C-alpha cells in the first residue's frame, strides 16, 4: 500500500470524533500510513426533529456514504446501531472492532440509581426503545416515572439534569466511555431491565467494495481490526431488526451475547424485545444455540427469533414499520 494519507470520513460530534480518532490510531498501526479525519455534517446532525419523526434510519449515515461513493474519503466510521440493515452493493463493512459496553446508563441528579428516583421522576430519552422498556419496568415494579422525549449531544442531555429540568437522562455506556465521561454515570441499566439497540456499543468501518488493487488492499488492512465474535453477534441482532422490518428508531431492543464454559465460548444467546412506548404491551423472547460459524447462520438466527416475535404480535407494537 502507498504511504499517502488515508481519509477517514466522520460526523462532527464530539463522540463521533472521539471514536473515529480511536479507529484512526488503530488504522495507522496496521497500515503504517497517516490517517486524516474528514468532518462531514449529516442530516441527523442538523435536523431538530426527534429521530422517530425523521425515521432514524440512515439519517447519520447517508452523507458519509455519499462521500465514500464520490471518493472524497477512503473509509468511514459509523456507530453500528445507526446503520440501515441493508448494505449497499458498492460499499463493504470491512471491520466491526471489539464491542464496547452495550448497556444503557442513567445520569441522574443527586447520584440517584434508577430505582431510587422520586415518584413522578422525569427521565429524558430520544429513544422509543428505551421509553418502552423503562415504562414497562416501572409498571411492573410499582415505580412512577414520566419519560420525556429529548434530542441533543451528551452535553445538552446531561445539561437537562444539571439545570433541574429533568431528574435523569438515559445514554449509552459506550459513548460516555469513548469520550472519557463514564464517571458521570449514576446507574448502569442491566440488560435484563433494558435491552440495548441492535448493534449498540459496536462500530462499523466501511469502505468501497471496488475491484482495484488499492481497494482490495484497504479492505484487507481494515479487516485486521475485525472482531469475529462482535461481528457474528451484531449480524444476528441486525438480521432480527431487518426481519421485523423495523428502522433503527423503532422500539426494538436486541442483544446477542456469548455463553462461555470456563474460557471456551460454547453458545450464543439472542434476546429481543418489542414494545409500545408506554410499556403496556411487550413481546420479549430469546433463543440460545451454537455460536454461528458463518454470516448466513448468524442471519438465520436473527430471522428465526423475529419470526417467533411476529407470530406473537410484535408488528402491531412498532407503529409504522420501516419500508
Sum this structure up briefly.
Helix content is 33%, strand content 25%. By secondary structure, it is of the alpha/beta class. α1 links the parallel β1 and β2.
Write the layout of secondary structure elements.
Blueprint: E1 6-11, H1 14-31, E2 35-40, H2 43-46, H3 51-54, H4 62-69, E3 75-79, E4 91-95, E5 104-108, E6 121-124, H5 128-140, E7 145-148, H6 154-162, E8 168-172, H7 173-178, E9 187-189, E10 203-208, H8 213-223, H9 228-243, E11 252-261, E12 264-275, E13 282-290, H10 295-311
Parallel strand pairs: 1-2, 1-3, 6-7, 6-8
Antiparallel strand pairs: 3-10, 4-10, 5-8, 5-9, 11-12, 12-13
What labels describe this entry?
323 residues, globular, alpha/beta, five-stranded mixed β-sheet
Q: What features would you describe in this structure?
A:
This protein is an alpha/beta fold and 323 residues long. Helices cover 33% and strands 25% of the residues. It has ten helices and 13 strands. The protein has helices spanning 14-31, 43-46, 51-54, 62-69, 128-140, 154-162, 173-178, 213-223, 228-243, 295-311, and strands at residues 6-11, 35-40, 75-79, 91-95, 104-108, 121-124, 145-148, 168-172, 187-189, 203-208, 252-261, 264-275, 282-290. The strands form three sheets. It has a five-stranded mixed sheet, with helices on both faces. Helix 9 (228-243) runs parallel beside helix 10 (295-311). The longest helix has 18 residues, at 14-31. It is globular, with a radius of gyration of 20 Å. Residues 50-56 have low confidence and may be disordered.
